[in-house]
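<instruction>
Derive structure tokens from the sequence

<record> Sequence and structure tokens follow
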Amino acid sequence: MKQQRGIVLVLALLVLLSLTILGVSAVSSSLNQNKMATSMQQSGLAFDAAEAALAGVFFESEDEILLTNAALLDPLSQARQGTQLDPNVEDLSCTENAKWTNRQMTNAGLSTNAVHTAAGDYQTEVKTRSWSRTAFVREQACRGSSNVIGGSNINCHVFVVKGCGQVDGRSTIVANSVSAAVLAPASN
């Protein structure tokens, strides 16, 4: 009889141990999934900030009030007057700001006749920064509309624009780049 009680006790302990292991495993899996979801959410917020920074550059570059203001330069015109980027030699980095045209996106949004360089957070609920870098790459003959453009004094000015976003407290920066070609007078 005592031997049977000992076996029942051992079996009960094994069942409790199994349940404890399953419980710990479930809690651990839940915590890992929560961390992954938070990380994906923060990456999404940083990507949205990078996309907003790209949109801000094109907003300024198409702002007719800003374009007619002789005291201010849109980001593409400013980049055209700055350092030329050679993509074969260097990269347009989110962290290098001395050589490139810089813009900031804040929670104040975009407004016409303004150069968006003020520092501030793009989002304040989850503190997020949003900024862009713009660089002039080259001037080249425009492809395509050769009947219209051929023989004229117009070339395509090629730019690279990088939008950058970062959630506060994270070391990673999410970036997205686009190339833009603008019809402009050929420089001789």
Residues 46-185 form one domain. The beta strands are 101-105, 128-140, 154-167, 174-185. The helical segments are 2-61, 64-67, 75-81, 146-149. The longest strand covers residues 154-167.
